[in-house]
Amino acid sequence: MKNLFCITLAMIIWTGNAYTQSKTNDIPVKKLPSEVKVVLEQYIRTLTQSGSLDKCAENFVRIAGGTLVEDDGLRLRNTIKPFSLKKDFNNIKFYASPIQITRVNASPTQGTGYGESAVRGMVYKIWIGKKAGIAGMPAPISIIVPENHPSISSPKVVGIGSL
């Protein structure tokens, strides 16, 4: 009984700490940089207006970065289209249009990606809300603002697949 109590107490403490830490770098939604919001809106348009997953992938590679693209940054990695992108492409219909940003977390990163496509900078994890009447939690999309990269200067989507 004592062990069960200790385990339960440890889980409560750990869960509370994880929740607190996850909110540490939150910023007000209105402080989301406009260039990041523009890329977020481009991603949502790509999902909703491409017509097919193939066309969506073709359009998405222009704003994708980090580990979502090959080292040269010109092609999506093999696993992105059939898994993460497909999930978002199929599920975007459950999210509010226009998008409703419910939360923003801004955290610096030392790097994401490989080779020429590796970038470091500030990552904005942006949660978008579901349509009215659709059950479920908001889902995050991550966008990085690159710092000191020789060829990548605009924000890139670096985290998808949660919609």
Shape: globular
Number of strands: 5
What percent of residues adopt helix (DSSP H or I)? 25-40%
| Radius of gyration, whole Å | 18 Å
Could you state the order of secondary-structure elements as H and E? Answer: HEHHHEEEE
Ends apart, CA distance between termini: 41 Å
What about the largest sheet?
5 strands, antiparallel
Number of H- or I-type helical stretches: 4
Account of the 3D structure:
It is a single chain. With 163 residues, this protein is an alpha+beta fold. The protein has one domain (33-159). It has four helices and five strands; from the N terminus they run αβαααββββ. The chain has helices at residues 2-22, 34-49, 53-60, 80-91; strands at residues 26-27, 101-112, 119-128, 139-146, 156-159. A five-stranded antiparallel sheet has the order 1-2-3-4-5. Helix 2 (34-49) packs antiparallel against helix 3 (53-60) and helix 3 crosses helix 4 (80-91). The model is unreliable at 14-21 (pLDDT under 50).
Write the layout of secondary structure elements.
Blueprint: H1 2-22, E1 26-27, H2 34-49, H3 53-60, H4 80-91, E2 101-112, E3 119-128, E4 139-146, E5 156-159
Antiparallel strand pairs: 1-2, 2-3, 3-4, 4-5
Helix pairs in contact: 2-3, 3-4
Q: What brief labels describe this structure?
A:
163 residues, alpha+beta, 4 helices, globular
Short note summarizing the structure:
By secondary structure, this protein is of the alpha+beta class.
